[in-house]
Design a protein that fits this description.
Pfam families: DUF2229. The protein is built from 14 helices and 11 strands. The chain folds into 2 domains: about 1-155, Rossmann fold (3-Layer(aba) Sandwich); about 175-315, Rossmann fold (3-Layer(aba) Sandwich). Helix 1 (about 10-25) links the parallel strand 1 and strand 2. Helix 6 crosses helix 7 (about 135-155). The protein is globular, with a radius of gyration of 22 Å. The chain starts with a strand and ends with a strand. The chain is α/β, with parallel strands linked by helices. Helix content is about 50%, strand content about 15%.
Length: about 350
């Protein structure tokens, strides 16, 4: 039996755990291909117009599995940790998948509710394993293996991964990229943003490189509590980068029609503008994004950071304010406030 896994959304967080579960019960996991323009177009045509870009990408991957698998695994992810809940699109994703096309294979949707300390949701994975034809003992062993894999993934998120002291980087042209992993790790959706930053001489830092405990503590200082788990981590990571001056600038990357992203972006902009943060630019992705426009905006942002860094270095060497270059003064002033630029590529 072949069970498909769409290469989209939470596959980029839990894909390895899902693969291991399916292999443990003796079925063949089939991963959809890399995202292409055709996949995005097909998903945009079939998905509801009100959905965000990542859901349209997911829809395209679902359709690409139509004739190659016997069933598709689409877990209903309710929460990622204590005190949080998932975005509504994750809660309703299995229902959306079933409504895409009446000829799609069976959608199997066991619940994942990591905030449930008793792991009562694991029963649904046992039922799914039995439905795939696994015996009782094998199904129970696969569920235990899944729980252990998720625990290991959670511990890995709480390990300092960047630098040697509290996840700090040298601020020499490092740029924090506060965007969902399913956007940033998909080269077609992000238009290769991370590689483009590296080609420009910058070092991109993503949110998965920030200790989850550090991000959680920072997010608690926002003027409003963020209940969505992933968005809370994005905001906390950006606040950490800014307050620790761990990066030269921050890119907040969101998707068009993403409700939680819009709200968190506004909260983050307000908080950082009052604190005098490192420069911040917002980039909004959609299915019409053009690579040329993206490159132009990234180049402008990197050039601004580079000039501001040079201005700061010259100002540190200058004996008096009168001897400084007027352009340096303006750049230094710009660095003390949040620079927000809403970017939507068409």
């Amino acid at each position: 039996m072949k069970v498909g896994i769409p290469r989209a959304l939470l596959y980029h967080h839990y894909g390895d755990c899902w693969f291991e579960f399916l292999e443990s019960i003796g079925v063949e996991p089939v991963l959809s291909g890399e995202t292409t323009g055709k996949i995005i177009t097909n998903g945009a045509v079939k998905a509801d117009n009100e959905t965000c870009l990542p859901v349209k990408v997911f829809s395209g991957h679902m359709l690409s599995l139509k004739d190659s698998v016997d069933a598709v695994l689409v877990p209903r992810v309710v929460s990622q940790r204590q005190g949080t809940c998932s975005c509504p699109k994750f809660l309703g994703l299995p229902d959306l998948a079933r409504a895409l096309d009446c000829e799609l294979p069976m959608v199997v949707a066991p619940r994942m509710d990591i905030a449930d300390r008793w792991s009562l949701w694991a029963r649904e994975w046992y039922v799914a394993a039995r439905a795939f034809g696994a015996g009782r003992a094998r199904s129970a062993a696969a569920v235990l293996k899944l729980l252990r894999a998720l625990e290991q993934a959670e511990r890995a998120e709480q390990t300092e991964q960047v630098g040697e002291e509290n996840g700090l980087l040298e601020p020499d042209m490092s740029i924090g990229v506060a965007g969902h992993l399913y956007n940033m790790h998909d080269g077609r959706v992000s238009l290769g943003m991370l590689d483009k930053l590296r080609a420009m001489g910058a070092t991109p830092v993503t949110v998965d490189e920030v200790d989850a405990r550090v991000a959680r503590k920072q997010a608690e200082t926002l003027s409003r509590r963020v209940f969505w788990g992933f968005e809370s981590h994005l905001a906390g990571a950006a606040l950490h980068w800014s307050r620790a001056r761990a990066v030269s600038g921050i890119l907040f990357v969101t998707s068009f029609a993403c409700g939680p992203g819009s709200m968190v972006g506004a909260l983050l902009e307000d908080q950082l503008s009052r604190e005098g943060s490192v420069p911040l630019m917002t980039i909004t992705l959609d299915e019409h994004a053009a690579e040329a426009g993206m490159v132009t905006r990234l180049e402008a942002f990197v050039d601004m950071l580079r000039h501001a860094s040079r201005a700061a270095a010259r100002a540190g060497q200058a004996p008096s304010r009168e001897s400084r270059n007027p352009m340096d003064e303006r750049l230094l002033s710009d660095m003390r406030v949040t620079q927000t630029c809403e970017v939507k590529s068409h």
